[in-house]
Amino acid sequence: MAPLIKLIVPILLATLALAPSVRAHPHVWVTFHTQLVYDRDGSLTGIRHDWAFDEMFALSETRDIASKKGGTFTREELAPLAEVNVASLKKFGYFTFLKADGEKVELTDPEKDKYWLTFEESTLVLHFTLPLNHAIKAHHVAVDVYDPSFYVDFQFEKRDAVALDGAPAGCKVVTALPRGLTEAEVKVLSQIPANQVNTSMVFGEAMANKIRVSCP
Q1: Phi/psi at 88 (nearest 5 deg)?
Q2: Domains of the chain: total
Q3: What is the rounded CA–CA span in Å between residue 123 and residue 117?
C-alpha cells in the first residue's frame, strides 16, 4: 500500500467505528491551485501545484512530528514528510495528466528543491512543480487532475484556481468541474473497506478537474 494511503488508514479506522457512513470513497480530500509555467519564448515548461489536504489527513500526517512551536511546523520539520508524499505520488503520475495539441506529454519528477510542505491554521499544503520532459509550444493545452480510483477527491480552489505564469499574450484559460456521482456509484463505493483502494470502479476522466488553455 502506498505511503500516502497508509498514513491515513489508522485514523480512518478509528473514525469508522464512530461514523459508519464515511465508509464511502473518497478518503482524502484535496483542494488545489495550479499554475502553468511558461518560458520567455512562450514554451510550456511545467505544472506548479499547491494541494491543501483535508484536516483529518493533515492531523494524521503530522501527529508524530516533533514541533518546536507546538501545533505549528516549519518547512524543515516537514521536509521528511514532503519527501515521503512526493515519492508516493510518483507511483500515480502525481494525478496530473497533460496533453498538448491532442498529444500526451510526459511530466517528470519534481526537483529536490522544488517541493515542500507548509502547515498553517491546521491546513497542510503540498507545494510542488512537475517539469515537462521537454518544453513545448502548443495552441491547445489540456491538464486533467484526478484519481482514477477516487480514493482522493480533488477540487479546485473556489477563487483563482488556475493561473498562467509567463504565458504568451492572448492565452486564455477555462476550467471544468467533474461530474457528480450517481446513486449507484455511491452505493458501490460505500461498500469498499476504508483500508482498500477502489479497483472495481475506475472513473478516469469522468471525475477529472479540467484545465484548458488556448493560445494564438
Answers
A1: -70, -45
A2: 1
A3: 10
